[in-house]
Specification:
Blueprint (H helix, E strand, L loop, with lengths): L10 H50 L47 E4 L19 E8 L13 E9 L5 E9 L2
Antiparallel strand pairs: 1-2, 2-3, 3-4
Amino acid sequence: MRVDRAGGFTLVELVLGIVLLAIVLTIVTGFLAPQARRSAEPLIQLKANELGQAVLNEILGKSFDQNSERNPPFRRCGETGFIACSSTLGKEGAETRLTFNDVDDYIGNYATADLVNSLNQSISDDYAGFSYSVTVIYDGNFDGIADTNNNAKLVTVVVNSSNNESYGFAAYKGNY
């Protein structure tokens, strides 16, 4: 009498299959793990872009100079018969972001921990780990180098993101 063995795997074959599967999964996971980090980069870039554009738009919405008129007849500083433009850049006295009135008041470094939106609501959670800095120079000949021609100011905003990348934004504000 002959006994047929049913088809199947032996214990040795099962152990070898499990070991082989573990090796393959380790290799595949090693290739996928770095992709997870890279998948967050576009979101961080988008947030940095939004922050940089928002800050730059806020700055460019202010007057060219402390000495420019903000009410009719809206005379420009340095115009014939009117006050000269300020020779110093930066805040005048104890100004805060709420009282900034010209583009060079924003010069400085800022952490986003105390960032607020137009409704004065904190948005620091949305930009955790971000910071930005603002520089303003006179650049009347538009070459990116500071000069004494005070017909234009170059405003530069550099956003530092949570992944230690820097994103630069720049625009000119003319004396008009």
